[in-house]
Design brief:
Layout (H helix, E strand, L loop, with lengths): L1 E5 L3 E2 L5 E8 L8 E8 L6 E7 L4 E3 L7 E6 L4 E6 L8 E11 L2 E7 L3 E5 L2
Parallel strand pairs: 2-11
Antiparallel strand pairs: 1-3, 3-8, 4-5, 4-9, 5-6, 7-8, 9-10, 9-11
């Protein structure tokens, strides 16, 4: 499985960030697979943002839930992240990731290469 994300590298404050991730070698509708967005701000740890399940159900981090939306296009085998009202604090490397869930075990096993997003006026 390979994931490849893309989107604008530079945004101004208050704009909406939209990233898309294409999945190759696997289907985003495969039972047990969840498709997540994780980011890493400069000098900080990884932050889980949200995901969409193989059934199309979404879950978000409470801290950014009001600004976040994850969607998918099953015909293209892609999923997307939309983050509204960005600020410089949203500057980070953004990763799309597959999470495989088997019972209580969650493994984030396939990652995109990451895309740098900078928010600056």
């Amino acid at each position: 499985v390979q994931l490849q994300e893309w989107g604008p590298g530079l945004l101004k404050p208050s704009q909406t960030l939209s990233l898309t991730c294409a999945v190759y070698g696997g289907s985003i509708t495969t039972s047990g697979d969840y498709w997540a967005w994780i980011r890493q701000p400069p000098g900080k740890g990884l932050e889980w943002m949200g995901l969409i399940s193989y059934e199309g159900k979404t879950h978000y981090s409470p801290s950014i839930k009001s600004r976040t939306s994850v969607s998918r296009d099953t015909s293209k085998n892609q999923f997307s992240l939309h983050l509204s009202s960005v600020t410089p604090e949203d500057t980070a490397v953004y990763y799309c990731v597959r999470a495989n869930v088997a019972g209580a075990l969650v493994v984030y096993d396939y990652w995109g290469q990451g895309t740098q997003v900078t928010v600056s006026s």
